[in-house]
Amino acid sequence: MKQVLITLITVFGCIAISFAQHKGKVEMGFNIGFNTTNISNNIEIYDLPDSRYGFNFGVSADYYFSDDWSIKAKYIFETKGWNNDLIQVSDESDPVVRYESTNIRLNYITIPLMITFHAYGDDEDRINVYTNGGPYIGFLMDAKETRFNTIIKDSFDKIGGGISYGVGIKIPASNKFKFFLEYESQLGLTEIFKYRDRYISVRHAMNFGINFLLY
After folding, report:
1. Is the predicted pLDDT of residue 110 greater than 90, yes or no?
2. Rounded to an integer, what distance in angstroms lies between the CA atom of residue 87 and that of residue 143?
3. Alpha-carbon distances of 97 from 90, 93, 149, rounded to whole Å
4. Are 55 and 35 a contacting pair, CB within 8 Å?
5. Range of 182's domain?
6. Measuring CA to CA, how many Å separate 93 from each of 89, 90, 97, 147, 148?
7. What distance in Å separates the CA atoms of residue 111 and residue 164, rounded to the nearest whole number?
């Protein structure tokens, strides 16, 4: 799957470089949002932990290479993880293996690169509905479990990624300033753990932010 992700990022990067040679409109954005995250696999569908609620905030750049299409890149800090997982408890005086409940807390820097379709083009006076999708790459910054407050970063792959997609709406406040509300999802294509196979990250978010026209 990592080869698939690298191929997707390469293809989208080449598209971005190609269209960047054309003069177009550029918008900058800032957002904050609320996440729900978990892990998923195709085996233990009934034994997965509970979702975690978290947050994200980030910046974005939206380059319009036509009236209806743009390329959007984001730089996001986001909290991920899940609740009610199990951690093995070792005790030298007790040979019986025991498990206790814990929550997993992960922090990532995530960079999506997405193609965006705008239903009403770049009309500055109309509400703009848009949808987008493309690959993302994520960098693990921190990982902890809450039962013993232990750092468990070495149990996870430091770099991962997958597909990001969503839909949103932009509401103009002026000819250079817009508010936006969007729903965004991430589906991992790479395994999240180093030593456990077939687990991927899943994340859903509702984001609110502002966009302003650079040129």
Report:
1. yes
2. 14
3. 7, 11, 20
4. yes
5. 2-213
6. 12, 9, 11, 20, 19
7. 10
Instruction: Give how many domains the chain has, as a whole number.
Output: 1
pLDDT of residue 6: 56
Q: Tell me, what CATH number does 53's domain have?
A: 2.40.160.20
Query: Over the stretch 38-63, which tens digit does the pLDDT of each residue have?
Result: 998 866 555 788 999 999 999 999 98
- The DSSP output letter for 203 is E
- Please write the tens of the pLDDT for every residue from 115-145: 999 987 555 667 889 999 999 999 999 999 9
Is the torsion defined by CA of 168, 172, 178, 181 positive or negative? negative
Summarize pLDDT for 141-157 with one digit per residue, the tens. 999 999 989 999 999 99
Asked if 52 contacts 81 with a C-beta cutoff of 8 angstroms, the reply is yes
Beta-strand ranges (E) seen in the chain are 26-40, 50-64, 69-91, 94-118, 128-145, 150-151, 159-172, 177-188, 200-213
For the CA atoms of the chain, what is the radius of gyration?
20
> For residue 157, what are the contacts with CB-CB under 8 A and spacing of at least 6?
140, 190, 191, 192, 193, 194
Rounded to the nearest 5 degrees, what angle is found at the Cα of 130, between the Cα atoms of 124 and 134? 130
Which value, to the nearest 10 degrees, does the dihedral of the CA atoms of residues 186, 42, 12, 178 take? -20
